[in-house]
Amino acid sequence: MGTLNIIGGGRPTGRIGELPLEAYDVDTGVWDILPKLARFRHSAWVYDDVLFVFGGFECSIPTIPVTKQMSIDLSSFIKIKKKEHSLLDAKLVGFEELVGLGFSEKIEFKKSLSLPILDKANQDETVDNFTLSPRVLIAVRSTPETPPAIQRMVKSISLKRLNLEAKKLIPTNAVLFGPDLEESKEPEPVRESLSQKFINQLLRPKNNEYSKLDRRFPFRKDEIIALTDECAEIVKNEPTVIRITIPVKVFGDFHGQYQDMMRFFELWRSPIESIHGGDIESYDYLFLGDYVDRGTNSLEVICLLMALKVKFPKQIHLLRGNHEDFAINSFFGFAEECEKRLDDDLDNGDSVFQTLNRFFELLPLAGIIEDKILCLHGGIGSTLKSIADLEKIERPIEIVHDVKTPLDQLLIDVLWSDPTDSDQELGIQKDLARDPCETGYIVKFGPDRVESFLQDNNLMMIIRAHECVMDGIERFAKGQLITVFSATDYCGSHKNAGAALFIQKDYQIIPKLIYPVNMDKELYWMEQKRSQAPSGWKDNPNDKSFD
To answer: Bridge partners of 375?
Structure first.
């Protein structure tokens, strides 16, 4: 049989790129050239107490792939209970021990690392923000005795199944498993998880057939509710203000325009493993809210995002928008979509519609990227003074539109406020487009407000969504605030571009744009229930009332 090479999914930060992948053979000490695997950060394997890392990108120059190796003595960074043999003793079960001790989470290395195996001139001086992924790729170097079915095989598996998979592939390898290993039985087939079932069906970047209004959703109501409950268990344990590392992709409003989401994923990779053409090992993904309403495929958008959150809870980040609110999405498309596509009883407390709205009340309100960039849906309004104001808010949160308390106003500010129309308009101003009755609850904030907020909170920038802007992105306050909007041709009448922001290791922000395509007007929920909408609210798609 062949020799198992462990190709890790660790995440030293850096840009994506392509590099021929090599894996070290701990058995013979030779290098085996494997088929090219694109968009990875590095390959990694463990022998004895040492983690070896090959390839990836320089932390200081995250645009150039390198062919360097480094070694990390795990025993100097993490205290692990020793057994009769050394930490791993060349046994793959050591990976599971590390994961059980939390080693799959972020670990910071702040010292120089020597590389005793390869050329000492090619060694990184420092490695920081190092993370091991919960999944790895495995490969088998073929020999004349290797069955054809697994020759040159590369496969993505969970760390928890690594030992079983290794026994299956190489049952007699004494170097990896020791000479006294009992012959293993064929493992039971893994049942496809519910989240993976949704991902397989909905994450189809190259499928550009836009859904019609009368098409039924391809999942049962009980499956949607089960997925929502599973995602809610993850989200409710997150803080109200989440912390995010770079590099990260930031998306604005999609408003049920599933086809636009697929276009982004087709052009610039999707949040899935690199072996399947994605880049989740390379980027976190941050979505700024407004997943539902207006477009006809809100169910596709929110269900796919929940499934991805379940599969990659530390890398997919979902914030709340102003349309993730029962009082809003009851009237602007989402309720009608659930009713028509699922035969959902909207008045039933156990319906998909009401279950999802309870989930929306658990979503975090903001995210901070590397303690430098505040991300939220709307803005800072007139009352948000510090990050601590948001951190102390307890969830679930029901939005009160008829403001009675300071907390009610703070939530309206975070979800509904906008920048003023130009850098010349200072202070706090009325927002007549969103607040035609002039209640004063929804306001615009000037560049002076942005600058003072950033200084007071030691921040570099604010990234927000909420507004349909013609170029998909719009800068404000001399570039200290950026609006990003990802749905193109909003409501079929704006002809706007859609955008996403790719934030790199050095805080460079790279906008990625998509442009409107010819689409059937039936793809939008244009007939709203005006007579039932809250008093004074507009529903004209040509204004900004419900972006």
So the answer is: 367, 463
- Single-letter code of the amino acid located at 339: E
- For domain 246-532, give the fold: Purple Acid Phosphatase; chain A, domain 2 (3.60.21)
The one catalytic residue among 42, 323, 377, 494: 323
* Joined tokens for residue 265: 């994923």
Looking at residue 220, its pLDDT comes to 96
CA-to-CA distance for 248 and 316, rounded, in angstroms? 10
Beta strand residue intervals within 111-258, DSSP E: 135-140, 154-158, 241-244, 248-251
The backbone torsions φ and ψ at residue 487, rounded to the nearest 5 degrees and listed phi first, read: -85, 130
Look at the alpha carbons of 446, 451, 457, 460 in this order and tell me if their dihedral is positive or negative: positive
Higher-confidence residue: 19 or 42? 42
Per DSSP, 524 falls in state: B
Taking only the tens place, the pLDDT of each residue in 379-413 is: 999 999 999 999 999 999 999 999 999 999 999 99
Q: How far is CA 301 from the centre of its chain?
A: 13
Residue 20 CA to residue 14 CA, distance in Å, equals: 17
Query: How many Å from the N-terminal Cα to the C-terminal Cα in the chain?
Result: 59
Q: Which of 260, 258, 282, 256 is nearest to 271 (CA)?
A: 282
Hey, how many other C-beta atoms are within 10 angstroms of the C-beta on 340?
16
Question: So where are the chain's domains?
Answer: 4-177, 246-532
- Name the pLDDT band for 544 (thresholds 50, 70, 90): very low
Other residues' Cβ atoms within 10 Å of the Cβ of residue 392: 11
What is each CA distance from 104 to 9, 15, 368, in whole angstroms?
10, 21, 22
Token pair, residue 488, equals 């193109």
Please give the Cα distance from 525 to 327 (Å, whole number): 17
Q: Let me know: does 212 contact 522? Beta carbons within 8 Å.
A: yes
As separate numbers, helices (DSSP H) first and strands (DSSP E) second, the chain gives 13, 24
pTM: 0.71
| C-alpha to C-alpha distance for 78 and 98, rounded to whole angstroms | 9
Q: Is 323 a known active-site residue?
A: yes
| 174 vs 274, higher pLDDT | 274
